[in-house]
Amino acid sequence: MVERLPEHVRALVTEIETEIGDEEYDSRGLAPTPAEIIEGRPAGPDGRVAALAGSSAAIEEAVRDILVEIGEDPDRQGLVGTPGRVHRMYAELTAGYHVDPARLVNGAIFDVDYSEMVVVKDIPFYSLCEHHLLPFFGNAAVAYIPRGRVIGLSKIPRIVEMYARRLQVQERMTQQIADFLMETIEPMGVGVVLEATHLCAVMRGVKKSGTIMTTSAVLGVFRARDRTRAEFLSHLERRPPGE
Fold first, then answer.
1. Among 25, 164, 175, 177, whose Cα sits 20 to 30 Å from the Cα of 158?
2. Is residue 243 in some structural domain?
3. Residues with catalytic annotation?
4. Strands (E), 14-173
5. CB-based burial of residue 55 (10 Å sphere; 0-12 exposed, 13-18 middle, 19+ buried)?
6. Please, which residues have CB within 8 angstroms of residue 181's CB and are 6 or more apart in sequence?
7. What CATH code is carried by the domain that includes residue 169?
8. Which of 203-228 are b and which e, b meaning 16 or more Cβ less than 10 Å from the residue's Cβ?
9. Is 112 a domain residue?
10. Residue 122: domain span
């Protein structure tokens, strides 16, 4: 039997997928609970379902083994609850695997006679490097040029969040965000820039604090036209009023 997601992860998945006014209501006029939203969801294209598939005990035992291996006592007071906490933490930080993209978009694509650049920037994100399971974090900027259709503003930070809450490399995450927008609203082009600090380069290895990694993905006219790409980058240099 497949286990369901922990309640706090179900709530997080629901938060990423929906917002006030987005809920689907039943015949009683009641919005579904997080558990009801997860219940019966089919596996995604990567074969994952909204569940942890009985992994709780295995993950906690693995954490205990790590504690022993580094010379600690997993039964001492400060560590006795650590395996469970680590399990819950990873379930939360990888909740993006369980987000249903269709529920996230939820029809928030609108016919609008607008064909100039739309830019959403300074979107904070936190993710986990898949090489060392250490955090990397920073800000994302996303732009697109509509082809008669726009996506709801709040959906863009949610798209970033969906891909950030997975084991990632920054390069792939950048491309995934761009590809998702391109496939979902079919604009004339998409541009995405991520800037992040990686703790695997700050806490270990080269130990270079202050190092920032920048990645970009440009599709459509952002790739084909230098002028469009330059306009996008100029928007990133502008600071909000009052700063």
1. 25
2. no
3. 129-132, 170, 198, 200
4. 109-111, 118-129, 135-145, 149-151, 167-168
5. middle
6. 142, 144, 151, 156, 159, 187, 190, 192
7. 3.30.1130.10
8. eeeeeeeeeeeebbbbbbbbeeeeeb
9. yes
10. 108-237
Extract the tokens encoding 99. 């987000």
For every one of its 243 residues, what pLDDT tens digit does the chain have, with 9 covering 90 and above? 334 677 878 888 888 887 654 555 444 444 444 444 444 444 444 444 444 444 678 999 999 999 999 999 999 999 999 999 999 999 999 999 999 999 999 999 999 999 999 999 999 999 999 999 999 999 999 999 999 999 999 999 999 999 999 999 999 999 999 999 999 999 999 999 999 999 999 998 878 888 899 999 999 999 999 999 999 999 999 877 766
Please state the separation of Cα 102 from the chain's center in Å: 15
Domain count, the chain: 2
Q: Is 126 helix (H, G, I), strand (E, B) or coil?
A: strand
**Cα–Cα distance for residue pair 45/101, rounded to 1 Å:** 11
Q: Residue holding tokens 């739309």?
A: 118
Q: Other CB atoms closer than 10 Å to residue 85's CB: what's the count?
A: 12
Indicate the pTM of the whole model: 0.82
Q: Could you give the angle at which helices 155-164 and 7-17 cross, rounded to 10 degrees?
A: 140
**Residue holding tokens 């569940």?**
51
Are the C-beta atoms of residues 138 and 196 closer than 8 Å to each other? yes
Who contacts 179 (Cβ-Cβ below 8 Å, separation ≥6)? Answer: 217, 219
Amino acid at site 125: F
